[in-house]
UniProtKB/TrEMBL annotation:
Residues 61-244 form the Clathrin/coatomer adaptor adaptin-like N-terminal domain. Keywords: Membrane, Protein transport, Transport. SUPFAM superfamilies: ARM repeat. It is found in: Endomembrane system. GO terms for cellular component: endomembrane system; membrane coat. The keyword Transcription does not apply. It comes from the Eukaryota. GO terms for biological process: intracellular protein transport; vesicle-mediated transport. This is Clathrin/coatomer adaptor adaptin-like N-terminal domain-containing protein. The keyword Protein transport applies.
């Protein structure tokens, strides 16, 4: 209960660019956190659902207000209730040009939807456009959605853009592109079979985070066919040597242990 209260407060207070949440939402979080029983909590959430159902369909809702409603829908679902009546509004928010609103929309749809949901078709074109954005934060948000929402049928629609992003100047984008290709490999190995050499190339990426992300798909590939990757042993030994000699940034240490997850 206390953890939910803390997360809700962070959702309410963590916005930027003047899009902070209202006192009403903070009071909702507080009342749920102070609920003395599950029944009392459910009564509060059900009242909130009825209120949101009325408000979210009102004409001319300011964007700031709609953003708050979407976050409140996320909070409702965090507490185990159905907020499907508002999913379409989260999808629409991914189309917005404002960075904060767009990222809020992407966060919500990746939490609300699964790859087989009927609304996925409405977001594919937006993802395609955002993967080409000049703003790397928008690209990262779109790649997060790709990893969660793109299914076997829609992989071809975004695959060329994801492959192109492997050469992006920002390491965060390259890392998420690797994660997206790994996801595609799990969903449909045949769709990326001609791209597996990219994992070999990214093992030599200048950023340790990208290199570490590449180890995950390589692990799967080697598990299936070790003989085809024996030539990478030298590279793996070199990586372990860098880790053991503390040559990676300290950010990769965990409780003074050097890069344990890469190891």
């Amino acid at each position: 209960m206390e953890q939910l209260k803390t997360i809700g407060r962070e959702l309410a207070m963590g916005s930027q660019g003047g899009f902070g949440q209202s006192k009403e939402f903070l009071d909702l979080v507080k009342s749920i956190g102070e609920a003395r029983s599950k029944a009392e909590e459910d009564r509060i959430v059900l009242r909130e659902i009825e209120s949101l159902k009325r408000r979210i369909v009102e004409p001319g809702i300011p964007k700031r207000k709609m953003k708050e409603y979407i976050i409140r829908l996320v909070y409702v679902e965090m507490l185990g209730h159905d907020a499907s009546f508002g999913y379409i509004h989260a999808v629409k928010m991914t189309h917005d040009d404002n960075l904060v609103l767009k990222r809020t929309g992407y966060l919500a749809v990746t939490l609300f939807l699964n790859e087989d949901h009927d609304l996925i078709i409405l977001i594919v074109n937006t993802i395609q456009k955002d993967l080409k954005s000049d703003n790397y934060l928008i690209v990262c948000a779109a790649l997060n959605a790709v990893c969660k929402l793109i299914n076997e049928e829609t992989i071809p629609a975004v695959l060329p853009q994801v492959v192109e992003l492997l050469g992006h100047s920002k390491e965060a984008v390259r890392k998420k592109a690797i994660m997206a290709l790994h996801r595609f490999y799990h969903k449909s190995p045949s769709s990326v079979s001609h791209l597996l050499s990219n994992f070999r190339k990214k093992l030599c990426d200048s950023d340790p985070g990208v290199m570490g992300a590449t180890l995950c798909p390589l692990f799967d590939l080697i598990t299936n066919d070790a003989n085809s990757y024996k030539d990478l042993v030298v590279s793996f030994v070199s990586i372990l040597k860098q880790v053991a000699e503390h040559r990676l940034p300290k950010a990769y240490d965990y409780h003074q242990l050097p890069a344990p997850f890469i190891q």
